[in-house]
User: Fold Succinate-semialdehyde dehydrogenase from Rhynchospora pubera.
Amino acid sequence: MAMRRVAFHGRHLLSSPHLFRRHMNTEPMAALDRIRNSGLLKTQGLVGGKWIDSYDGKKIEVQNPATGDVIASVPCMGSKETTDAISSAYSTYSSWSKLTAAERSKALRNWYDLIIKHKDELALLITLEQGKPIKEALGEVNYGASFIEFFSEEAKRIYGDIIPAPLSDRRLLVLKQPVGVVGAITPWNFPLAMITRKVGPALACGCTVVVKPSEYTPLTALAAADLALQAGIPPGALNIVMGNAPEIGDALLKSTQVRKITFTGSTAVGKKLMEGSASTVKKVSLELGGNAPCIVFDDADIDVAVKGSLAAKFRNSGQTCVCANRILVQEGIYEEFAKAFVKAVQGVQVGNGLVEGTSQGPLINEAAVQKVEKFVNDATSKGANVILGGRRHSLGKTFYEPTVVSNVNRDMLLFKDEVFGPVAPLVPFKTEEDAISMANDTNAGLAAYVFTKSIPRSWRVSEALEYGLVGVNEGIISTEVAPFGGVKQSGLGREGSKYGMDEYLEVKYVCMGNLKET
Ligand code: ADP
Assistant:
């Protein structure tokens, strides 16, 4: 169990090497066979506990980004299927929300146990459809499962309040009640964890859910949903639809039965969903893009800074919203850091995630590679230097070389926007004030990282950073027990921890009056 809590980084995962050895160099077909044999290769949507195709029979193909091969086809659903999924969630809500907290907790705990039991198959599925190395995929399964475990426990702690009354014949109570049916829209970069950290607290609170996973990675979502059914989560409490994203999104937004939208994905789509939620005044949680600064001060421990920046930058091929997007390095340590960092990045092994030793898989698609190319070209045309990588990888397809770009400044796309790829821009700075000003010079505000040995400076800088998460001398900070979420245009609300429950609860005030005996 040592590898459970903190996700994604090889360091933690190495504590359980036998798990990986079993997977090493698995051929994609053998991996798929293994998943099929376990019964977890589900290729239909889930509505009201029934596996269904799209009503018009249309399908979409799911590809392995490492090979370009089609893994499976899933239904291309739209508004009709979504409306039915909402109805099923709505009718199940009345029974699920009335169960005792202990009953809901037990079903969630069963689900957690089943995810852990099938962690190897789920990890293979994640690597096949998303591309991340199997070690990271296993890390994601453990991380994803941890939300179900944590919220199965939190289900029992939805306490209300009794408020001292201003009048002696009254008693004032506060009840916390589930918000109702939830529409959850999730991205492809964490095919399991982005779902469990929404569905876990939603079900724990008594809500029912319609999930729309990314069309790039629906298979993990469907496998997880199958395990939820096996665990005793009632049919209709968790529904999965996928296909035409804007149609599904609109059906969720239009419905008066859907009381909450929770979304992880791009800032542009998040804004649309927030706008679309206005007409029915839904509760909204958004986890949107980041532009994480990673500040390395002259007084940092260089080994800690290199290790932390490497982990924060290259996890999932740079495709996470908390990935270090700008590595700001103080002048006095710049050359030494750049040298040590390049050396560390040279150790990143690019390849198919199923192959032993791979630490960087492909990017999700061609558009992602083109975006990376555009950002690197923009930087070099404005005076930055590529000091490592800087090209598509010789493996072809959507593989890109682990890249370090030096002398990046505020005018470059690499500074202004999220590159979402394996490119580390190094930005020199002079003073602490400069670093804070550069770090905050963005509309995003999700994660930030600081490397320094000074305790006063760590406090000062952590407090000055306009970000929802700050890692001090640590590059991997996500855990189910801490609140995850952004400020500014990185989003609304928090996921994980006790705060993650509030997003799925309404506060009801009950005033009991005329209590004096007559
Ligand atoms: P990314 O660039 O990471 O794929 P997106 O925001 O495009 O980010 O996708 C995140 C999720 O939002 C995916 O499930 C995608 O299908 C969904 N999505 C995209 N456009 C819309 C839309 N108009 N309405 C609802 N969901 C959408």
